[in-house]
Amino acid sequence: METGNLIGYQYKEARGNGFRAIDPSTGNQLPGDFYTADSADVDSALNLAEKAAAIYRYVDKKTKAAFLRSIAEGITNIGDELVERAMAETGLPQARLQGERGRTTGQLNMFADLVEEGSWVEAVIDNALPDRQPAARPDIRKMLIPVGPVVVFGASNFPLAFSVAGGDTASALAAGCPVIVKVHPAHPGTSALVAEAIKKAAQKHELPEGVFSILYDNGYTIGEALVKHPKTKIVTFTGSFKGGTALLKMAQQRDQPIPVFAEMGSVNPVILLPDALESRYNQIAEQYASSITLGAGQFCTNPGLLIAMKSSGLEKFKKALGDALAKINSSTMLTPGICKNYSALSAEMLAEQGVSIIGKGNLNNDKANQAQPIVATVSASSFLVNPKLKEEVFGPYSLLVEADFEVQLQQVLDDLQGQLTASIVADDTDLVKYKSLIQGITSIAGRVMLNNVPTGVEVLQAMQHGGPFPATSDSRFTSVGTGAIKRFVRPVSWQNWSNDLLPDELKNGNPLKIWRLVDNKMSKE
Amino acid sequence: METGNLIGYQYKEARGNGFRAIDPSTGNQLPGDFYTADSADVDSALNLAEKAAAIYRYVDKKTKAAFLRSIAEGITNIGDELVERAMAETGLPQARLQGERGRTTGQLNMFADLVEEGSWVEAVIDNALPDRQPAARPDIRKMLIPVGPVVVFGASNFPLAFSVAGGDTASALAAGCPVIVKVHPAHPGTSALVAEAIKKAAQKHELPEGVFSILYDNGYTIGEALVKHPKTKIVTFTGSFKGGTALLKMAQQRDQPIPVFAEMGSVNPVILLPDALESRYNQIAEQYASSITLGAGQFCTNPGLLIAMKSSGLEKFKKALGDALAKINSSTMLTPGICKNYSALSAEMLAEQGVSIIGKGNLNNDKANQAQPIVATVSASSFLVNPKLKEEVFGPYSLLVEADFEVQLQQVLDDLQGQLTASIVADDTDLVKYKSLIQGITSIAGRVMLNNVPTGVEVLQAMQHGGPFPATSDSRFTSVGTGAIKRFVRPVSWQNWSNDLLPDELKNGNPLKIWRLVDNKMSKE
Question: What is the ipTM of this complex?
Answer without folding.
Answer: 0.97
